[in-house]
Amino acid sequence: MSATRLSNYLLSTAIRHHFTTSSRVIRPTLLPKASHLISAPAVIPRYCSSSSSSSSSSSTTTQKEYTSPSPSTSHKDSAWRKMHHKETPDYLKQDHDRVFDHNREWAEAQEKRDPGYFAKLSEGQTPDYLWIGCSDSRIPAEQIAGLAPGEAFVHRNIANLVPNNDLNTMAVLEYAVRHLHVKHIVVCGHYGCGGVKAAMTPKDLGILNPWLRNIRDVYRLHEKELDAIEDDTTRYNRLVELNVVEQCRNVVKMAAVQQSYAENGFPIVHGWAFGFHDGLLKDLNVDFESMLEKIQKIYNLTD
Ligand SMILES: [Zn+2]
After folding, report:
1. Can you give the pLDDT at residue 39?
2. What spacing in Å lies between the alpha carbon of 25 and ligand 1's midpoint?
3. Catalytically active residues, by annotation
4. Residue 33 φ/ψ, nearest 5 degrees
5. For residues 70 and 49, what is the distance between their CA atoms, to the nearest angstrom?
6. In the predicted model, what is the mean pLDDT of residues 60-84?
7. What's the 106 CA to ligand 1 centre distance in angstroms?
8. Long-range contacts of 223-232 (CB under 8 A, 24+ apart)
9. What pLDDT shows up at residue 96?
10. Among candidates 126, 141, 245, 143, which has minimal Cα distance to 182?
11. CA of 223 to the centre of ligand 1 (A)
């Protein structure tokens, strides 16, 4: 098979695996691996254990995906693409219309309420807060905290992690501290976090493994306390809180944070947790001064 044909085949295979045509409407489906995030069991084991069961089935699937197509299969792929190419925009358009309609209404209302609002917004940003939260769609940072545009620099990822080898998170922190001079850094987790739950599930989650291992490490660091909690939900909630505190520690380990605090007296680091059941933020009362002092015994980067 030529390189071009192979490339076209891989593309069509990828499309088939990402969409289903169960009705006239084409809807994106969750990848098999990602579905574990949704279906992770509520019961959290007292310790983590690895499993290789799904990795074997994964290799079988991969083998099947890369089998050379017959000419008739290629023809079907082409027909599939032609048939559904027309329908896809209709499905996408519904959401886009709703979003753009809302955007227009919002922009008009903002300008009416505060003439010149967007002219001021375009002058630049000087946010006081850097918000590091979970990507969970139910926790829009600005809305739950009542922060207006321009008041918070926001970074979100699965389970609000601050891994020191994650270029994205590190760049956001560096920019927020050294260039935007934020006064507060908030790490905000939430009870019922699917990422935390998935990390405590003894399954191979593919590319998510190295990311979620940061949470397994939090469990290992606090294994004694967590294992002593009998109730599963209580133990899970405590892991959510401990994960927030450990991510605050990771923020405090950064040179930019330590140096800015030594020179300016800010930023201050806070650990909060959001609850779906009441919509409230809980302050985990991270003692920033004390945390910084302990961290600097080993991670002092102020020179
Ligand atoms: Zn989450």
Report:
1. 39
2. 29
3. 134, 136, 138, 190, 193
4. -65, -45
5. 42
6. 51
7. 28
8. 223/47, 226/46, 227/46, 227/47, 232/42, 232/43, 232/44
9. 80
10. 126
11. 21
